[in-house]
Design goal:
By secondary structure, the chain is mainly α. The chain has one domain. The chain is built from 6 helices and no strands. The chain is elongated, with a radius of gyration of 17 Å. The termini are close together. It comes from Nonlabens agnitus. Keywords: Membrane, Transmembrane, Transmembrane helix. This is Sugar transporter.
């Protein structure tokens, strides 16, 4: 039987910050799924055309990324090792979205703030995987 060790205070801070980040992603997904006009009202014609011509799998992939990421953070806070698996699934979905976005040229159609957000999604997804693996090695989660 593996015994949990008491996590450092910063574990809780990082886990909560990652959860808040993933909740923002979840809200973005739900907004896009339920009220896409809120997302597209500021788009120019070229952006709107690219948005409307996305492959059908894109929203499913988006859902996997945000739900797996959010539940990974919840599992971290519950100190369950399943957080690692969920973080990896989330990051794989982020990689697929990232690849599609770069390959399709969509990144060329947005401003600097959207590009920064795009890269932050990748960075925070990677940090979540590393953090969950680190917490497992430290036996903060089992």
């Amino acid at each position: 039987m593996k015994f949990k060790k008491k996590p450092a205070v910063w574990f809780w801070i990082v886990a909560v910050l990652l959860l808040l980040w993933n909740i923002m992603g979840l809200l973005a997904f739900l907004t896009e799924a339920v009220a896409p006009q809120l997302m597209t009202e500021t788009f120019n014609q070229e952006q709107l055309e690219m948005y409307n011509n996305r492959p059908s799998w894109y929203m499913y992939n988006f859902a996997i990324a945000v739900f797996a990421g959010t539940f990974s953070c919840i599992m971290l806070l519950a100190r369950k090792k399943f957080a690692v698996t969920l973080a990896i699934f989330s990051f794989l979905a982020v990689l697929i979205s990232t690849g599609y976005t770069v390959y399709s040229g969509a990144l060329d159609l947005v401003g600097m703030s959207d590009k920064v957000l795009f890269y932050l999604v990748f960075v925070f997804g990677f940090i979540l995987v590393l953090f969950a693996m680190f917490a497992t090695r430290k036996r903060w989660i089992v």
